[in-house]
Amino acid sequence: MAGIYFWRDKVNKKAVALLSGGLDSTLAVKVMLEQGIDIEALNFTSAFCTCNCRDSTCRSEAQRVANEFGIKIKILQKGLDYIDVIRNPKYGYGKGINPCVDCRIYMHKLAKKYMHETGASFIITGEVLGQRPMSQRIDAFKSIERDSGLEGLILRPLSAKHLEPTIPEKTGIVDREKLLDIIGRSRKHQIELAEELDVADYPCPSGGCLLTDKIFSKKVKDLLEHNNDVSTKDLHLLKAGRHLRIDENTKVIIGRNEKDNIKLKNLMQPYNLLIEPLNFAGPTALVCGNINTAARDVTGRIILKYAKEKANLHSQLKAVKNGEESVFTVDSLIDDETMERMRI
Q1: Are residues 285 and 156 in the same domain?
Q2: Is 160 found in the same domain as 30?
Q3: How many CB atoms lie within 10 A of CB 84?
Q4: Among 52-56, 225-229, 269-273, which is the least confidently predicted range?
Q5: What tens digit of pLDDT does each residue of 21-57 get?
Q6: How many domains does the chain have?
Q7: Residue 148 sits in the same domain as residue 258
Q8: pTM value?
Q9: Distance between CA atoms of residues 229 and 251, nearest Å
């Protein structure tokens, strides 16, 4: 409680807003700007972000909103320390491998640090009570506030009238009567509010996280189970190609298209083996883990399988590791049953 009294004495009209670039966080910022609150935005990105933005990313949407509103914005990448949050979430997972409550705590701890740095005295988020089943419940809100050390200092303008008054409201910095009482998963009220506040061009009404996707979650779980140390490139590779586990120590990623093939080349690390068709058209493959001749040959057989009629058993493949190249051939295609068993 001492922390709360300390901040109560220093509360001011400056806040840090968690701005994803989606409709909810955009509206939350707009509502507070209408009350004369001085806002600096904080946008978090990670290898697990997804959004239905048109020809854009959530990061650029957040930047666009900040520019439109005339506020400063800082982009923060969730670091490799975030992997520990995914590995060992205090509050468990959702339907995939998504540690939603722990993720919010992680972000709010960083937001609290930024709040100190900028001289702000509270946090604003676009969370709506009841919108997300795991992290947007009253008990989850309380856990997030308590564990991040921000009790009474996280203002959720869109659902504020369903929640206990925050310190900014109690001290009169924010007029509670001008806050909202939105609840549930429907975006009807937000769309109406957007029209009322003249907020246009919101291509991302609800962002998302790949950790909630059951198929993608399997790839993440496999990576964490087989690797004590994970790099940023490992995380970005999760979004490229088809993932197959040859054995406990070796994984293969097969490009699905030219974009994937290029991505695999760009994300190749010194301890990976890159395999490409040499005299036929087919997918590129990246071998991760224990790399030996057997793993190389199995990968070659997988490539020929996907290449179909474009390849034959005399087709050549090129293997590259640490700048050294070698050419090899394989004597058969991988069979369907084996490949299906390898699929992650």
Answers
A1: no
A2: yes
A3: 12
A4: 52-56
A5: 999 999 999 999 999 999 999 999 998 987 544 444 5
A6: 2
A7: no
A8: 0.88
A9: 15
